[in-house]
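Comment thread on ticket #2218

A.B. wrote:
> Attaching the input chain for the structure job we discussed in standup.
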Amino acid sequence: MSEGRSSLLESIQTYFNNLKPTTTTVTNAPVVDPGNNGSNITGAPTPEEAKEYFETKDDMRAKAVRLAALIRESRHVVIYTGAGISTAASIPDYRGPQGVWTLLAQGKRPTMKITLEQATPTYSHMAIVELLRAGMCKFVVSTNLDGLHVRSGVPLDNIAELHGNIYKEVCDSCKEAHVRMFAVNKSSVRRWTGRLCESCKTGRLRDSIVNFGENLPKKDLRDAAEHSTKADLTIVIGSSMRVTPACDLPSYSYSNGGRFCLVNLQKTGYDDVAKSSGGVRVFARCDEFMRLVMEELAIEVPPFVEEVKDLEKELDNLIPDPSWEGDQVMKKYNVYSMSDDGPPPKSVLRQIRNGMPLKSVQVTERTGVELGKVM
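C.D. wrote:
> Ran it. Output below, let me know if you need it in another format.
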């Protein structure tokens, strides 16, 4: 055997001799609890769990004074919100007497008085914006996907939307988030929305909705955990705190001496924590209680006013994805027979092609459908 070949064989043998045994590493990625571990996440609440409790006006005011004092003396306040904060916007909660899971378990179909896109931020949403502006709140963590926090004016840098946002699509390449005036998930196909990122120009955009059993967005979860750890006061508004890992986040604060406050009409498994941490437990409607808190803080809360954007300009900036399989967006709408007057204007067709459904149209007695007006 030649010296060169012998040297090569020895090198190969040495390589295999130095190989380490195969090991298996399991990494647990945070997901939205699918409710299959006995936690009854999507099941019907018991009558006692669904029962709503209300403070007397005097007790509610006294607790508002107490929470206002805690906010003033705290350095890092984090607010967590659940479905209860949006019920005043006519969006049903999950476990109240008329909640989604409650009614489904009774064989009843939950009804929406309005669509999610027609809902507008409540007083509590606007109050949180003012607390952020005043420096009295540092961060918001929400499990709501209705997008009302961002619509109310909460900057993306100050919020973790753990379950997504119907108005937000995210680039799969540069991870840039784009917030639209329309629900991006209505026209998505396998989560792709049919548009490219306006920042990097090449990344494909996906809707941001997180379903049960899916991984939470890494950045949002990381930011939420970081601020929860820093918090010396955590305030939960409108949540029964039943969905993990979101309900675990406030413990990063109160397990290290932080105070914990909870505003919710139903009892929760965390009610005693508010008392033991030196916080406040309040049984009240979110808007009613937050009005008292903001009055005590002497902070005026302006009503929500929708900013009118240049729709044509926004649509012109959208970049269609040429590889998208979603011609279904056009197929969803019979756009060439919307009225007897012929096809709709090009501006309306372009809105539909870009994934923006028409929410409603105005009807007059003389002309029928008045095309081109997106409400």
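A.B. wrote:
> Thanks. Noting for the ticket: The longest strand covers residues 77-81.
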